[in-house]
Amino acid sequence: MTTAAAELETEVRRLRIRIISLTSTQLDEATPPAASRREAIRSALTEFSALGSQARPVPRLGDQNLADQVVVLLEHGLHSSADLPEAVRDERIRALTEAAVRLRRRLA
Fold first, then answer.
1. Measured between alpha carbons, how far is 80 from 61 in angstroms, rounded to an integer?
2. Would you list the DSSP string of the chain?
3. Residue 2, class by beta-carbon neighbours within 10 Å (0-12 exposed, 13-18 middle, 19+ buried)?
4. What CA–CA distances, in Å, run from 33 to 39, 62, 74, 97?
């Protein structure tokens, strides 16, 4: 596993814990520019899909599934980059990591 991949795996764990710990009230709270933390997560899901899953549509599931959706999309992006040339793979992993870090900071 590359350093970039390890960093992404660390962010996946952090985000999962962070999202699971949010209550419905906290998910409703605003986090500019999004209307709420929930919308920030859903926006990030779309970004994760665009970066690592060929922009497949992301279903709008309930709050209890948000953390799982984040994990699945980020891990899929990581695994799907394995067959790419090294430079492209590293760039994709860095982009996913940066997007994950942005989301985690918005949820703080």
1. 23
2. --HHHHHHHHHHHHHHHHHHH--HHHHHS-BTTBSSHHHHHHHHHHHHHHHHSTT-------GGGHHHHHHHHHHHHHHHGGGS-HHHHHHHHHHHHHHHHHHHHHH-
3. exposed
4. 10, 22, 22, 20
Q: Per the structure block, which two tokens stand in for 11? A: 């962010």
Total residue length of the chain: 108
Q: What is the dihedral of CA 59, 61, 64, 67, to 10 degrees?
A: 20
Q: What is the pLDDT along the chain (108 residues), one digit of tens a residue?
A: 679 899 999 999 999 999 999 999 999 999 888 799 999 999 999 999 999 999 999 999 999 999 999 999 999 999 999 889 999 999 999 999 999 999 999 998
Which residue bears the tokens 């953390």?
A: 67
